[in-house]
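User: I'm writing a short report section on ligand binding and want a predicted complex to refer to. Could you take this sequence and phenylalanine and write out the structure as tokens? A short remark afterwards would be nice.
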Amino acid sequence: MNQATPSWRAELHALTQDWLQRIALAADLAGLRELEVASVGKKGDVTALMRRVGTLPPEERRDYGAAAGDVRTQVDQALADRKTALEQAILDAELADDTFDETVPGLLPKRGHPHPLSLVQAEIESVFSSMGFHVLDYPEVESEFDNFEALNIPSWHPARDMQDTFWLQDGHLLRTHTSSGQVRAMQTFAPPFRAVFPGKVYRYEATDASHEHTFHQVEGLLVDRHVSVAHLLDSMRTLLSAILKTDVTVRLRPGYFPFVEPGFELDIQCRVCGGKGCSVCKQSGWLELLPCGLVHPHVLRAGGLDPEEWQGWAFGLGLSRLVMMRFGVPDVRLLLSGDTRFLTQF
Ligand code: PHE
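Assistant: Sure. The structure tokens for the complex follow:
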């Protein structure tokens, strides 16, 4: 080169030396990261060098470009080397620490689990929605009207004692059953309609392996013209076969609930013994599954429907109970215990 050495050569050299030295002295990865940003980052010193090429006389541009590129390469290399060295130092320190045992297996991140109640509820919802049912969500804090009065349970009625109630100070209550949504649904949808409403219900009672103050139900309600017990029975058989994924044999026994007439307890034939009698069904051949019945005319009227024109059936499925049967859960209190030893099994 017979030209005088351009002034930028010395400058680039000095700049390179400065960065290489600072990088070599970086004490830790965070410090190194800062240097990386300040040098080769978008607004870094080294990055800025390239942009200067346009300010130089045309005959110098090629050499300058090459030199600036070289600076960049050196700085990148220094950054990479220092990073490797710092990481190695961390590893060395860990290995040198004799409380560190590299043969201990690593910690796996904890995985979440769907709650068994959510699993079964989702299945039930999908079976019902495929059969044209709305899936509804009604309040847990309810009025006395929707939980009792509208369901033909006036305040003097002994049936109030069947469901011990958590009362709130303002006269509302925690719903004691999902039936509290029945009249709400009748007031919302023009008949004929069909709906299920799953949810949490509350009862003020002592807890044991089969009683919990908070548990889950799924209410089913169908309103149409000409609904009969035969229709109820057949609907239950179809629905339960879909939910339990096997043909079920059902029977009805009389059951009393003020909001249905006639009212029933529905049993399914024990699938363990096929009805012969075993320990699961306490030798009876049948398992009690859900209460149901034809909607009482008073309830239809409370929902604004004319019982001469409209009829309905309703059932109250014990979701918590179904989950216990399905997974063999021995104690209902496990369901809402929040105990991860239980939950991680699903
Ligand atoms: N709501 C009643 C209960 O929880 C169950 C039920 C629902 C009975 C629908 C008949 C019809 O005890």
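A remark for your report: The chain has two domains: 7-96, 116-343. The longest helix spans residues 58-96.
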